[in-house]
Design a protein that fits this description.
The protein is an alpha/beta fold and 285 residues long. It has helices spanning 9-17, 36-48, 66-71, 76-85, 96-99, 118-121, 125-140, 152-164, 194-199, 202-215, 221-231; strands spanning 4-6, 25-30, 51-56, 90-92, 144-148, 170-174, 238-246, 261-269, 272-280. The protein has eleven helices and nine strands. The strands form two sheets. It has a six-stranded parallel sheet, with helices on both faces. A three-stranded antiparallel sheet has the order 7-8-9, with helices on one face. A hairpin with a 2-residue loop joins strand 8 (261-269) and strand 9 (272-280). It binds adenosine monophosphate.
Length: 285
């Protein structure tokens, strides 16, 4: 089937309805500026579903800083070609007016899951994410929905959203895709200049040190946080916003590492904020 670019909710619903009997429907929500990380989600959806819908929407209500929204990369033509080459059936790329014809009166409120990590530093962000994803779930009504482990806190929020609101879709988490030097792929990497790009893997490196230490038995969270902070090179362009060790389900900080944890951090590289995380299991290398 040739790829179809759809811009309205009514059109998408009508076109997708005609495909439902073909088998499972897969949804891959994105903000565009697609890269190999997105491609990995799309390939998995393609392998598991009869019909694949990729949504491309830069969601204004999840941005806590207006300049981040203004600078967010947009490349619909290139994205559409990549989607076509991956065998996507529908791209849903609505306008802001289509998604938000009037200011919302109702929004999803997220609880303690977002008290730490990005939630602490980006007020309103996860409410904006949960709200737009709930709208996309309602619009597309997919059997399976694909999200990256790169955004671990987001994935945890979406899993609870689906459980708390009884959304009939299966959430599939997809492992993080990285560059050869370990940097997690991100649309925001495009903003790094050549010098910033060479130092950007610092967070990945720190995460690896912490993972190794946990695997070899270090359980003290303060020691592990110090290890991470000390591992970030002293460079005026690098600033560690947070580095935390949290429980993989409720995303609350742990005091000692006695079981699986998620190590997660946010690193400013110049004016670009990058995030990354790793699941770490004591005594398991
Ligand atoms: P975004 O366009 O950044 O909102 O991301 C759309 C989806 O792609 C989210 O579920 C992300 O977690 C996922 N994603 C982004 N980068 C990566 C990556 N490097 N590896 C795997 N998934 C990713």
């Amino acid at each position: 089937m040739a790829i179809s670019l759809v811009e309205t909710i009514a059109d998408l619903r009508a076109q997708v309805a005609a495909r439902r009997s073909a088998g499972p429907l897969g949804l891959v929500p994105t903000m565009g500026a697609l890269h190999e990380g997105h491609a990995s989600l799309i390939r998995q959806a393609r392998a598991e579903c009869a019909t694949v819908v990729v949504t491309i929407f830069v969601n204004p209500i999840q941005f806590d800083r207006p300049e981040d929204l203004d600078r967010y990369p947009r490349s619909l033509d290139v994205d559409a070609r990549l989607c076509e080459s991956l065998g996507v059936d529908f791209i849903f790329a609505p306008s802001v007016a289509e998604m938000y014809p009037r200011p919302l009166e109702c929004k999803v409120e997220v609880g303690r899951l977002t008290d730490h990590l990005c939630g602490r530093f980006r007020p309103g962000h996860f409410s904006g994410v949960a709200t737009v994803v709930l709208k996309l779930f309602e619009i597309v009504q997919a059997d399976r929905s694909y999200f990256g482990e790169k955004d671990a806190q987001q994935l945890a929020v979406i899993r609870r959203l689906v459980s708390d609101f009884n959304v009939p879709t299966t959430i599939v988490g997809v492992p993080t895709v990285r560059e050869a030097d370990g940097l997690a792929l991100s649309s925001r990497n495009q903003r790094l200049d050549a010098g910033e790009r060479t130092i950007a893997p610092a967070l990945y490196h720190a995460l690896q040190q912490v993972k190794g230490a946990i695997e070899s038995g270090v359980a003290s969270v303060s020691d592990l946080k110090r290890l991470a902070a000390d591992d970030i090179p002293s460079d005026a362009r690098l600033r560690l916003e947070y580095f935390e060790l949290v429980d993989p389900v409720d995303f609350q900080p742990v005091e000692r590492v006695t079981g699986p944890v998620v190590a997660a951090g946010a690193l400013w590289v110049g004016t670009t904020r990058l995030i990354d995380n790793m699941r770490c299991v004591p005594g398991q290398s």
